[in-house]
Fold this protein.
Amino acid sequence: MTTPIFLTVNEAREVLRLGRSKFYELVSAGEIRLSKIHGKSLVAKIELDRYVATLLPTDTAA
């Protein structure tokens, strides 16, 4: 089975383990970008990867 390129909003929320309000708060703040395809809001998998990368610590010193 192949990994989807786009996820529905609900699938993206499940991946991030976020509630509806928090997810749309991040969308409104421009932290997560939605794509409209045939009138349906979808989240690109690469967009989720980009967002998660912003959450990871960059300081590798222990």
